[in-house]
């Protein structure tokens, strides 16, 4: 772990030196006589501010730590933009130089262009992060609970509640999910952004308490709850506001099974790991509808063979910032959207909140509304599956 951390810091240092050198060239062009020592001191503090903000500090200095973390989160977005754009700029510079083109004004013009593009990227990405889309899916399941009324399920994943995603965004989520008039509300992991401290300090549990569902509100753990190390406290807080955190547990509500798996992180961070799907579903009546939450989108085939009808995941954020979605698309069988695996309906959400910078590009903050149509609640001519994912902007 120490070797891995050292390598990560080395790479991060080299990347930031590359970015910082380019910025220093531009600023010296615009501000002749700039004190380079002062510049590098300020730049290094900013470039490592996200890590600085995660250092445990005395109570009196915690607001300073939060400021560093927020500033550092935005810098992470700027860093990704720079890592993509600066090599392209250097390549263009080299090509023009080889072609004998005069480059006397290149630094100023290229710098101004990149800063304008960065501003657009931050504004557009912020809009995508805070302006939420509701995606609706109509799913047909060949099982019955003896009612003619479809089951409405409201789903949110990856809230990442903390110092960046706070009560304002949370209030909008609660309002929108309650407006769905759901039978069940499901929170598919990463409700917390690591630390539980800002969740408690800002009374976010009291906002979550306002979620209303006919048959209850249920959650599962994500990897960030494990990273935060406060699972026992978190589950107790959630229990006190009427939200059950399912940890390899199954509950039956109105003839429907809601299954919550421990996050895959448990395999590395808990002595007992987590149960297999078959072990978790032992004794479950497979003729009844089974909705399962598993934060990380893996094991679709196993869930399908076990008789699960609907599998809900998040975790990927759909890469959050392009072109990261090219990576998540290759890492997971489904990194975002809808998939029919035999008779299993799989839905992977891009998440409601954000990790790190509150910036999204090629992904959106989203909530999921499911209308699960069971046997006996279908009208003539219904198709086996109708996953209409028509987005509604809120």
UniProtKB/TrEMBL annotation:
Residue ranges of domain Calcineurin-like phosphoesterase in the record: 152-318
Highest taxon of the lineage: Bacteria
CDD domains: MPP_YkuE_C
A Pfam family it matches: Metallophos
Keyword tags: Membrane, Transmembrane, Transmembrane helix
Keyword Transmembrane helix attached: yes
InterPro entries the UniProt entry points to: Calcineurin-like_PHP, Metallo-depent_PP-like, Metallophosphoesterase_sf
Residue spans crossing the bilayer: 33-53, 74-96, 102-125
Protein name in UniProt: Metallophosphoesterase
